[in-house]
Amino acid sequence: VVDDITEFYKQTYNNYISTKQEALKETLRLIHFGLNCCGLTGTVIDSARETCPKKEGLEALITTVTNITPTATTVSVMSYYIVG
């Protein structure tokens, strides 16, 4: 299941980078905001940073948004969003 979710995310991410389709952007935003993550690298130079949760004030200075590396927790949360 983790491999399937990882592959789905990578395909969605790469398709968005190449096409900039609005539907793919919203899919990435849902994933990023739901899991508080950002792209494949988790860095501010990520190509799809417009889909990432925004950090403001001190939060931007002292915290980082993680990359989307699926774990058991990620799979559980994503399953909740998909099923729930």
Present the secondary structure layout.
Elements: H1 2-19, H2 22-35, H3 57-62, H4 72-83
In short:
60% of the residues lie in helices and 0% in strands. The chain is built from 4 helices and no strands. The protein has helices at 2-19, 22-35, 57-62, 72-83.
Specify the number of helices: 4
Strand content: under 5%
Specify the biggest β-sheet. none
Helix/strand order, N-terminal first: HHHH
What is the 3D form? globular
Rounded to an integer in angstroms, the radius of gyration calculated over CA atoms is 13 Å
Structural class: mainly alpha
Mean pLDDT: 75
Number of domains: 1
User: Fraction of residues in helices?
Assistant: 55-70%
First CA to last CA: what distance?
A: 17 Å
The stretches of 5 or more residues where confidence is low (pLDDT under 50) are: none
Q: What's the β-strand tally? A: 0
InterPro entries: Tetraspanin_EC2_sf (IPR008952)
